[in-house]
Amino acid sequence: xxxxxxxxxxxxxxxxxxxxxxxxxxxxxxxxxxxxxxxxxxxxxxxxxxxxxxxxxxxxxxxxxxxxxxxxxxxxxxxxxxxxxxxxxxxxxxxxxxxxxxxxxxxxxxxxxxxxxxxxxxxxxxxxxxxxxxxxxxxxxxxxxxxxxxxxxxxxxxxxxxxxxxxxxxxxxxxxxxxxxxxxxxxxxxxxxxxxxxxxxxxxxxxxxxxxxxxxxxxxxxxxxxxxxxxxxxxxxxxxxxxxxxxxxxxxxxxxxxxxxxxxxxxxxxxxxxxxxxxxxxxxxxxxxxxxxxxxxxxxx
Length: 301
Known about the structure:
By secondary structure, this protein is α/β, with parallel strands linked by helices. The chain has three domains: about 5-70, Arc Repressor Mutant, subunit A; about 90-160 and about 275-300, D-Maltodextrin-Binding Protein, domain 2 (3-Layer(aba) Sandwich); about 165-270, 3-Layer(aba) Sandwich (D-Maltodextrin-Binding Protein, domain 2), CATH 3.40.190. It has helices at about 5-15, 20-25, 30-45, 60-80, 100-105, 110-120, 170-180, 230-240, 250-255, 285-300; strands spanning about 50, 55-60, 95-100, 120-130, 140-145, 155-160, 165-170, 190-195, 205-210, 210-215, 225, 245, 260-265, 270, 275-280. The strands form four sheets. Strands 7, 8, 11, 12, 13 and 14 form a six-stranded mixed β-sheet that branches. A five-stranded mixed β-sheet has the order 4-3-5-15-6. A two-stranded antiparallel ribbon has the order 1-2.
């Protein structure tokens, strides 16, 4: 069955953007043109692909199945076309990245300014979210995650600091009022500002020293979601409401200006830094290849 590739692309665009008007804004095409393209596709295959109401557009079961299969296929087509950009003097195109909130906040600001200056014809689209994402199916060129979240069939390239630490901190006023913990178990008598992981579980606090590992279940009046509400937890700690536990890099400005004080620093747990990852099953688009080479050259002595 011969199908117009433009009609397939229109369907994918409308499904991902959640409507014909949003698809039109994202693509520059008219909403009516996208509607006609999807209608032609549905007529040709004899199956309804989209549920349409006055308020929303969503894929049917058939549409969802087609979307899952089309996403990687269309990415291959785009990559094949983008590869022709190698014939140009400078790589060009769009690089789409999916990253954790912490990476968007703490890692990328030290890397992206140099990259965009070196490659002015490359456009960056960065989405920050902490849940697991199938980057290919979601339309991204690559993702950034920590090693425990990497898929086995992906190629991983180090990005950012190669070692980081979890840190605990509280305001000087809080520690003067409640006392300074000398051992992680002392935290059981303190107001700990806990957080939930992207899977929804309340995260334990872990500390290491001289081969001893201590795991604490935090208790306190505030629980936040890791990443998106981390700044709220830090603000609460600055206000003297309790002890916060998060990446050291997130807290360092507060250590510098004195609004927060390190807690149990000899016990802070170390972990490896993040990785850029992408599929080994696809052509590497020129913008992504340029970013990989930029990272590797930046890491060379």
